[in-house]
Amino acid sequence: MTVKGRVALVTGGSRGIGRAIVESLARAGAKVAFVYNSNAAAAEEVANVLNAEGHEVWAIQADVRSKPASEKVVADVVEKWGKLEILVNNAGIIRDGLLATMDAQQWQDVIDTNLTSVFNFCQSATRTMMSQRYGRIINMSSVAADVSNPGQANYAASKGGVEGFTRCIATELARRGVTANAVAPGFIETDMTVAVVNAAGEEIKKKIPVRRLGKPEDISNAVLFFAADESSYVTGQILKVDGGIL
């Protein structure tokens, strides 16, 4: 898959799936900027390791929920490298709670981080991509958009929104050489899902046809496909990377 020389921006890139995406894009030859929220030490480690390998990687602190912040990040990337060709909206959080007891802040935090941030960065980046007549947008969904899990009304709503949003912008941007697709992970071994996985134990694996949890690299490989030059005829798709659980 060809991304060599391309300029990429990844949100939520300091750990877990986001880190794997940053590493895959950088090692495939892209220049990669990534956004992190608060863990500067983790972000610096990612950037330092990859830069030491000879890649061009840049960590940027920003609140993805903020539209002005997304505008500044995109402008800074374009100013630094002259273009922006790949956008991966990976930032996300979980704030589980049953509907009867979920407070408004739990709802709003998840919607703002998981869904509004996708709007923010897509709108900020597509102006540049459309003028270039080239772009690859990859948004992170989840199998939670299709599977009903008690206590995840906010998370499921955010990921269902991501999928609908992705299909819609794919139709709007296609004529300008910009594709938009989404990756929907299943149960992946990350810091964010450790509590869910630990609570269910081996029962989760029994429900997955391939009989294992996914790794962050399973997701980053899918992202790399959508980000590549060779995927120009693929748009508006939601790729389930879930070991067959759906």
Helix coverage percent of residues? 40-55%
Distance between the termini: 27 Å
Give the number of helices: 8
- Average pLDDT across residues? 95
**Taking Cα atoms only, what radius of gyration do you get, to the nearest Å?**
17 Å
Which ranges are low-confidence, i.e. pLDDT below 50, for 5 or more consecutive residues? none
Oligomer status: single chain
Shape from CA axes? globular
Number of strands: 7
Strand proportion, as a percent range, falls in 15-25%
Biggest sheet, strands in spatial order? Answer: 3-2-1-4-5-6-7
Q: What's the main sheet like?
A: 7 strands, parallel
Structural class: alpha/beta
Write down the secondary-structure element order: EHEHEHEHEHEHHHE
Description:
By secondary structure, the protein is an alpha/beta fold. Helices cover 47% and strands 15% of the residues. A 7-stranded parallel beta sheet has the order 3-2-1-4-5-6-7, sandwiched between helices. Helix 1 crosses helix 8, helix 3 runs parallel beside helix 4 and helix 4 runs parallel beside helix 5. The protein is globular. The mean pLDDT is 95.
Quick summary:
The chain is of the alpha/beta class and 246 residues long. 47% of the residues lie in helices and 15% in strands.
Can you give keywords for this protein?
alpha/beta, 246 residues
